Each structure stands twice: as structure tokens, then as C-alpha cells.
């Protein structure tokens, strides 16, 4: 046919094909039989239908585990240089008040992937399996024509550990390198299948480093699999969720990251030791966490973050090389934070910033202007409706979260009620309302606690009795009660929570 090969009427990995197709259609066709011309016109219509879905960008979510946002340069971190993650922030949007809806693993992940509060998606604590049939971002994007994959830690299939390739897909077609649970440091391929590479004396998978190297260390291994997934030539756009198990403990990392931060001065939080009056019942200090603990743990934690950033760089490099970078919506986030000694604690589970606030970056230059900074309080349940808004996906599912896409587009709506809601994992017994500046925590066995992030960013004090903040306290209490009633949050019925809110609200009358 005049030297023209029929082009593929689709877009592979974000590479445009429309111009090629149109050029092919413009070529002289008069000598073609009529039925061939008809067929071409028909296939053109079909192509336009396909193109509507094919013109969607790739979607890549990179999620870390237990990651203190301030270890990243773009969030003010001074110790670890994170140029690749920082690039996502400078070329896209950075959220300064994005919270884990429930700051532990499974509930946070479930909220991010379903847009539903834990009491609605049932994943109210760790190791609760996401109910079969639940719509997730995976199933939604699969239905939109995406090639879907999940690589790394999942933690929504119960107790299984590591449990590679869980049987229930939730729309993720390629789950070969998905594992349910565990903080493994070394992976190997055995006949093309992944295995934990370190074993204990009984031959069982272990968290040991076991001389993991740039091929077998978990972060590198999972990145390599992600590069293979991204590099597959396919007609559909891809959706990949890459979920690193680091920088969650155990605090260990391969060479050379293991010693990179041995000589830095480890910052010691002012709140490592606090007077009893500043210690709420929902976050008791642990006397065993000392300066020496932090000096021992933090250099490796920083090393894990540096390794993650280098691997994010490898992914950005591949996307750039293949011309797909700007045709890929990239999110960088974590499931929750790690207090890293703040308030005399490690890990998470409470509403303090280091525990509940997470890094949240989104780069997609077609829709999101560079250096967009978003201060409003958001949480994991807002992600799916917001992505729906940014990509105009026309999703029919109903979400609990809100569509904040106009903020990401750099065009904030004229009115927006700046408030979001966090809730404890089962047994934690607290509810929290958060705005850009304030957090109100109501719990059983503790008086209401009000944080003012502007005047007291370390959250050292309870501002609830400050008469100048009485109005703020009232409005946040009102909003928290409305949330708990409308979203049927059973924590409202836990002793001390509902009564606390009632008491707060009656005190203004
Ligand atoms: Ca986690």
C-alpha cells in the first residue's frame, strides 16, 4: 500500500500515534476498492472510541512504608539529598497537610485504594482482608482499559506472609511480584518467581540483609521489576502501584547506604522528653527511646530513604528515555509516617504529625502546574475522587472523600471547607478533625486535645483551654460530630468520645 504499513491505532506507553494514523488516512486511496475505504472509515470510528480510553495517561503510584515526610528535601529535610523525589514536587504538586486516614498500614492502604473510610471498607485495623468485590483503583482503572500491575507490599489480604501473588486480584492483573506482608530485605528470582532471599536457621524467610546487593536488596529488586513492567510494549496505558516495604524497620540497608549517614549529627526532637502534663493518653512516651536509640537507628533509616530516592531516579530516567514521562501521572506517597523519636516514640498509630502526616506529591504536567503547593487538609480517602477529577475518568463509584482536583490544577475553588477526619485503628479509641492549622483529638480516657501547628509545630502543648481558641475548638468539634454521625463512625459510641464531643459543644451555650 504505497509503502505505508497500517499503524497501530492506539497509544503505547504514552507515545502518541494519532498523527501517524491521520497521515496514513490522508494518503491517496482512490485505487482502493470501495469496501476497503468503507472498512477504513469504520475502523477510524472504532479507533476514535479506543483513543478516548487510550489517550488516558499512564498512572504510577510509588508508595513507601512508615516514612517521615521531613526526611525528604522537598519537605524541608536537611540530611538526605532526595533530588528525584524533590523533582516530582518542583514539577508538580506538593501537599503540606495530607494525612493517613488511619495511621497504620492496612487501613491507610485500603482508604487510599477505595476512597472509603475504614468503617465502610471494613479494613479498620492491620491484617483485615479487604472484602472481595470491593472496587479499588485497580479494578476501576482496569475497567477503563488500563494494563494494571502491583509490585511490592499489599497488606490487604489478611495474615499471609509473604504470600506472593495473592489470588484475589482487585483489578491488578500482574501480581507476580505482589506480596501480602512482611519487611523483607532481600529478594531473589527462582525460575522467574520471586522468593525471599534470606532464610533463618530453620530455612524460613527472614528479615536479614544477608549481603543483599544492588540486584537483590528489596527496594532495588522491586524497582527492577517495575522497570520491566513499564518497559513492556503494550497498546494500553499502564497503571502500576509500586509499594516499597522501606523505610519501615528493621532499620537495615545494603551497602553503600548502610554507612552513608554514619557521620551526620542525628537531630534529636525537642519532644523526645516531655513533662507528664504534655503527654496525652493516646500517645504515652516510651522511656526506652533515648538519644542513643535514635543515634543507632536513624543513620540506617536515612540510608533506606536515600536508596528509595535513587531508585525513583531510575524510574524517572526510563520514563524520560522512552518519551513517556509527561504522559504518566506520578504519585509519591507513604502509608503513614514514623515518629522517629518525636514525643518519645517510634513508629505510628496516633494523630501526631510525624505519625499521621504523609508525603504526597503528584506530577502530571498536562494538568498540574509546576510548584503547586496545596495546604488544605486532605486524607487518603480524598485521593481516588481527586484522581478522578484530575483525569476526568467519569468513575461511577461513590467515594467518601472529596475531589480536590481544582487545587492540584492550581485553580482552587472559591469556597472549600478546610477540614478532614482521621480515626484510630481498632483499640486506639480516638477521633481527630484536622485543618491546615489545627487538629482536635477526642478520645476515651483523655481530655480533648487541640494542636496549633502554626504557633506550636512540634505539637508539644494542648491548646484546648486557650480562650482565644474557643471558637476554633467549637467549630472543629461540631465538624467532627457531623462527620461521625454522617459516616456512621462507631468510635462515636466508644465511651468517652461521644460524651467528650457533647460536653465540648454544650460548653459554648
Ligand atoms: Ca505500614
Q: How would you describe what is shown here?
A:
There is one protein chain. The protein has helices at residues 18-26, 34-54, 83-90, 105-114, 118-121, 137-143, 218-231, 291-321, 353-356, 383-391, 405-408, 470-486, 497-506; strands spanning 58-64, 93-95, 98-99, 147-153, 178-179, 187-190, 193-196, 238-243, 328-334, 360-363, 372-374, 378-379, 420-423, 430-434, 438-443, 446-452. The chain is α/β, with parallel strands linked by helices. The chain has two domains: 56-408, Alkaline Phosphatase, subunit A; 429-506, 2-Layer Sandwich (Arylsulfatase, C-terminal domain). An eight-stranded mixed sheet has the order 5-4-8-1-9-10-2-11, sandwiched between helices. It has a four-stranded antiparallel sheet with strand order 13-14-15-16, covered by helices on one side. The longest helix is centred in the middle third of the chain and has 31 residues, at 291-321. The radius of gyration is 24 Å and the shape is globular. Residues 1-33, 35-40 and 42-54 have low confidence and may be disordered. It binds calcium ion.
Briefly, what is this?
The protein is of the alpha/beta class and 509 residues long.
Query: Could you name the CATH homologous superfamily of the largest domain?
Result: Alkaline Phosphatase, subunit A
Judged by helices, strands and strand pairing, the structural class is: alpha/beta
Question: Residue ranges: pLDDT <50 for 5 or more in a row?
Answer: 1-33, 35-40, 42-54
Determine the number of helices (DSSP H or I, runs of at least 4 residues).
13
Mean of residue pLDDT values: 91
What is the total number of structural domains?
Answer: 2
Instruction: Give the biggest sheet.
Output: 8 strands, mixed
The set of bound ligands, ions and cofactors reads:
calcium ion
